[in-house]
Design goal:
Elements lengths: L1 E5 L5 H14 L5 E5 L11 H18 L8 E4 L7 H7 L4 E3 H10 L5 E5 L4 H12 L5 E6 L15 H15 L3 E5 L7 H8 L3 E2 L1 H14 L32
Parallel strand pairs: 1-2, 1-3, 3-4, 5-6, 5-7, 7-8
The chain binds 1-(2,5-dioxo-2,5-dihydro-1H-imidazol-4-yl)urea.
């Protein structure tokens, strides 16, 4: 099966790191196709940037996943899950956001989890996601490290001690049993952190790939009944003109 992994930011180094993390967990018969938007911010650390990232996700889904059977799963590899609902309208494949997938996985591994993320300002965005997905009773804290996303571009080895320290403090302060990594750029650090911390450390990229594989293998895709129905055929203007939904699709 083919899984489209979209890095919603435009850092090609981060796309490569996310692709490697996805391929490391993918089943032998799974092809990972990693991509990123053709426009938008190099990293996503606020809501202005996230607005562009959501449009970039819609662009990539339209280009690579909007025809029936084109891919069997889609993973959005940014912790804000930008454009998740738009992506689900635009494809019949299952679409997994890394935050939503990580919250589900962590909730099956511990009664409560803590999120350790990048810039402190993104904590409120993550908090909105916790509410949106209904994980208020499982998420016991969201902790910013003020590590810039692009410091994780090369895999983030230089940041691992700081993330470990924040995770230790979170586990103790929140009385949590698991850590959710709050940035797709942290994917390559997951095994090291789990080994050091001795608790489940959940990287959303890995669990989203495995959930996508499982749903696709079960023949499950995004519902087209209701608000995830395909977009209406419509003319788009300006730079988005090629991305409008065409009638025969
Ligand atoms: C992210 C992420 O995963 N990628 C990105 O550019 N920003 N999220 C975050 N909380 O830093």
């Amino acid at each position: 099966m083919k899984i489209l992994v979209i890095n919603p930011n435009t850092s090609t180094a981060m796309t490569a790191g996310i692709a490697a993390a996805a391929r490391a967990v993918a089943a032998p018969g799974t092809e990972i196709v990693a991509t990123q938007p053709s426009f938008g911010p190099l990293s996503i650390e606020g809501q202005y940037e996230e607005a562009f990232a959501a449009a970039g996700v819609a662009e990539q889904v339209r280009l690579h996943a909007s025809l029936p059977g084109q891919v069997q799963g889609v993973v959005l590899a940014c912790f804000g899950d930008p454009g998740l609902d738009a992506a689900r309208e635009a494809t019949t494949a299952p679409v997994l956001g890394v935050a939503e997938a990580a919250f589900h996985a962590a909730s099956m591994l511990a009664t409560g989890f803590s999120v350790v993320t990048t810039m402190k300002r993104t904590c409120i965005i993550a908090e909105h996601l916790v509410h949106r997905y209904g994980f208020e009773r499982r998420c016991r804290g969201i902790h910013g490290t003020d590590i810039p996303v692009l410091a994780l571009e090369d895999g983030g080895a230089g940041c691992v001690d700081q993330i470990e320290a924040a995770a230790r403090e979170a586990l103790a302060r929140d009385r949590s049993g698991a850590i959710v990594l709050g940035c797709a750029g942290m994917a390559g650090l997951c095994a090291t952190l789990q080994q050091r911390l001795g608790v489940p450390v959940v990287d959303g990229v890995a669990v989203a790939v495995k959930f996508a594989e499982a749903l696709a293998a079960l023949g499950l895709g995004t519902s087209k009944l209701g608000d995830y129905a395909a977009p209406l055929p419509k003319t788009f203007v300006g730079w988005a003109a090629p991305l409008g939904w065409a009638a025969p699709r």
